[in-house]
Design a protein that fits this description.
The radius of gyration is 16 Å and the shape is elongated. The protein is about 25% helix and about 35% strand. By secondary structure, the protein is α+β, with helices and mostly antiparallel strands.
């Protein structure tokens, strides 16, 4: 089974995965990346992300040859509307 590497991007900071995970196929790697993004948002909310300001999260998945295969991303943003601005 192939090894996939999941590089985490949060705003302009990238954390490169040096260990990787052995998974059966690319579809499983896509699902793992989607779970990783969702877990990142949950962690931000639990930790009380600074004022819930806009955050850009992403994961780039590389294959065993270190070539990027795909990216997944999400923008987390809370915008106050109407009376909430007062």
């Amino acid at each position: 089974m192939p090894r996939y590497y999941f590089d985490w991007h949060e705003d302009s900071v990238t954390t490169r995965d040096s260990e990787g995970i052995v998974l059966p196929d690319l579809e499983t790697a896509k699902a793992e990346a989607a779970r990783g993004i969702a877990d990142g948002v949950i962690d931000m909310v639990k930790c009380g992300s600074p004022s819930f300001e806009r955050r850009e999260l992403g994961i780039t998945v590389r294959g065993e040859d270190q070539v990027p295969l795909f990216t997944t991303s999400m923008v987390f943003d809370v915008k106050l509307l109407g009376l909430a601005l007062a």
